[in-house]
């Protein structure tokens, strides 16, 4: 189950490419200050805003009220000192702590991918329980209707849930699943401006555990419901949630983000090992993003000079590590060099034949290149080989950590993988495959929010050479937006 995200990423490589006239949504990476996000959004061409306030109860007990601001391409949820803005233009989720005066920036794509993973996990669990001869009863929360309601997505290829709608004389409606009323709404009198309808529908789908078909039906009405009741199985027991509209105002206002907020890069994590790891590598990441780490990303000429120095000094294995690092950071094309051609101007140049001849007589270089070839075909053997290579006398041992980190993560050895990731980022935080591999590591731990944190930062690195290990993320995000337009 934890490799589902990786399957989705691989599948995205076969998605249709973006049209030439279709620009992808800009990536408001999580290191951007609020002022930069506002600049990236650009001028607000439509300041229309619908402000709603609801009283809430759960099984008849009062809950904190819910305030919602709906704009042309966003909506904001205000709950006490906490505010969450769903920016549908930049496709971000901005969490604001009003008391602390801070903002944390997440990707909406990571949120939707998590829903997909959770949907598949629950469907597979339900299927496994039904096939278990010792299982006498499947929890009602694993009924496909309740799965789809809590996750907010429908099961692909499954028959639609048998939901019956009963319209009321007052303009409201109730929704039945089986012999039970699962949702109802009373018609209201406040009309939803047409240009805000999409954002209003996104609010219903993101913020409330409604079945997608019911959310669509409510979103298609012209008026904000005066009352909205629905049943939730989110906590493993049936609860009735009721919203009563107490205020609705049409106004005009700017996007509700203050440029003066401070940036909190990471969410509070407590003892979460994933957040602890990300804290360890965060400083090298941010320094690399600004081009400050190690004085800036190494140029091809600098790499070639170091490779030549290592070869001239008889340090063949160090040269092999530098060649690998050059390929990881600057692309394989940067390794190819013609001593008689124009490449010779970019530092000392050694032909492939010359390098192959030198490396073939160095046992550690031979073992390293063999381990690289086994990464996918025989990862267990590759890991043993990486661990047996002596790297105590080289300047860039962290290159081996890059390969070990991925293998250890796939094997589920998460603590050991964390050490290798930390060493690799400390060594060279400009290598995009590190951001991809660390993101995949978090995805295996079902932290897609942290996965997209890494993917987004990696795609914002200076001097990035495409295509690279992060290039297929663009295709995946386009595919998600096409598959679930109502969530974006």
How would you characterize this protein structure?
This protein has a twelve-stranded mixed β-sheet. A two-stranded antiparallel ribbon has the order 10-11. It starts with a helix and ends in a 5-residue tail after the last helix. It is elongated, with a radius of gyration of 27 Å. The chain has 488 residues and is α+β, with helices and mostly antiparallel strands. Helix 5 (197-207) packs antiparallel against helix 6, helix 7 runs parallel beside helix 14 (414-427) and helix 13 runs antiparallel to helix 14. The chain has two domains: 32-164 and 190-252, no CATH class; 271-487, Tetratricopeptide repeat domain (Serine Threonine Protein Phosphatase 5, Tetratricopeptide repeat, Alpha Horseshoe). 43% of the residues lie in helices and 18% in strands. It is built from 17 helices and 14 strands. It has helices spanning 4-12, 34-41, 108-131, 144-151, 197-207, 212-219, 273-289, 300-312, 316-330, 352-359, 363-374, 379-388, 398-410, 414-427, 432-444, 448-459, 471-483, and strands spanning 48-58, 61-70, 74-79, 82-87, 92-97, 102-107, 163-167, 173-177, 180-186, 190-191, 223-224, 227-232, 239-252, 262-263.
What's a quick, concise take on this entry?
The protein is an alpha+beta fold and 488 residues long. It has 17 helices and 14 strands. The chain is elongated, with a radius of gyration of 27 Å.
The CATH superfamily title of the largest domain: Tetratricopeptide repeat domain
Helix content: 40-55%
Q: What would the principal axes of the Cα set say about the shape?
A: elongated
Report strand order across the widest sheet: 7-8-9-12-13-1-2-3-4-5-6-14
Question: How large is the count of helical segments?
Answer: 17
By CATH reckoning, the class of the largest domain would read Mainly Alpha
Alpha-carbon Rg, integer: 27 Å
Overall mean pLDDT stands at 91
Q: Biggest β-sheet: count, sense, barrel?
A: 12 strands, mixed
CATH domain fold name of the largest domain: Serine Threonine Protein Phosphatase 5, Tetratricopeptide repeat
């Amino acid at each position: 189950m934890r490799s589902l995200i990786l399957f989705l990423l691989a599948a995205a490589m076969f998605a249709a490419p973006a049209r030439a006239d279709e620009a992808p949504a800009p990536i408001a990476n999580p290191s951007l200050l609020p002022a930069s996000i506002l600049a990236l959004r650009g001028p607000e061409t439509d300041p229309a805003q619908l402000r709603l306030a609801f009283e809430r109860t759960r099984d008849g007990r009062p809950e904190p009220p819910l305030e919602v601001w709906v704009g042309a391409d966003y909506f904001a949820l205000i709950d006490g000192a906490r505010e969450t803005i769903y920016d549908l233009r930049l496709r971000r989720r901005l969490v604001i702590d009003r008391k602390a005066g801070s903002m944390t920036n997440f990707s909406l794509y990571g949120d939707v991918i998590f829903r997909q993973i959770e949907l598949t996990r629950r469907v597979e669990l339900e299927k496994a329980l039904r096939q278990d001869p010792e299982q006498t009863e499947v929890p009602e929360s694993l009924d496909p209707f309740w799965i789809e309601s809590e996750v907010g997505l429908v099961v692909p290829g499954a028959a639609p849930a048998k939901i019956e709608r009963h319209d009321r004389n007052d303009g409201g409606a109730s929704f039945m699943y089986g012999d039970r009323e699962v949702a109802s709404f009373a018609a209201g009198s406040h009309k939803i401006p047409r240009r805000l309808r999409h954002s209003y529908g996104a609010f219903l789908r993101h913020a409330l555990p409604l079945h997608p078909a019911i959310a669509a039906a409510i979103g298609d009405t012209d008026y904000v419901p005066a009352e909205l009741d629905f049943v939730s199985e989110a906590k493993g027991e049936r609860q009735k949630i009721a919203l009563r509209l107490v205020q609705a105002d049409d106004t005009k206002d700017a996007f509700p983000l203050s440029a003066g907020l401070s940036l909190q890069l990471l969410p509070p994590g407590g003892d979460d090992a994933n957040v602890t790891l990300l804290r360890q590598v965060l400083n090298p990441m941010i320094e690399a993003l600004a081009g400050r780490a190690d004085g800036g990303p190494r140029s091809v000429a600098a790499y070639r000079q170091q490779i030549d120095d290592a070869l001239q000094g008889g340090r063949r294995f160090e040269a092999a590590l530098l060649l690998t690092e050059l390929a990881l950071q600057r692309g394989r094309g940067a390794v190819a060099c013609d001593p008689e051609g124009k490449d010779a101007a970019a530092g000392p140049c050694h032909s492939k034949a010359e390098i192959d001849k030198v490396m073939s007589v160095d046992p550690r270089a031979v073992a390293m290149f063999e381990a690289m070839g086994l990464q996918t075909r025989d990862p267990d053997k590759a890991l043993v080989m990486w661990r047996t290579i002596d790297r105590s006398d080289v300047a860039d041992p962290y290159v081996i950590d890059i390969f070990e980190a991925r293998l250890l993560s796939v094997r589920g050895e998460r603590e050991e993988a964390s050490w290798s990731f930390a060493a690799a980022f400390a060594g060279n935080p400009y290598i995009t495959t590190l951001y991809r591999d660390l993101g995949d590591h978090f995805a295996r731990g079902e932290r897609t929010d942290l996965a997209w944190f890494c993917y987004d930062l990696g795609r914002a690195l200076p001097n990035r050479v495409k295509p690279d290990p992060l290039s297929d993320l663009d295709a995946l995000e386009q595919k998600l937006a096409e598959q679930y337009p109502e969530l974006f």
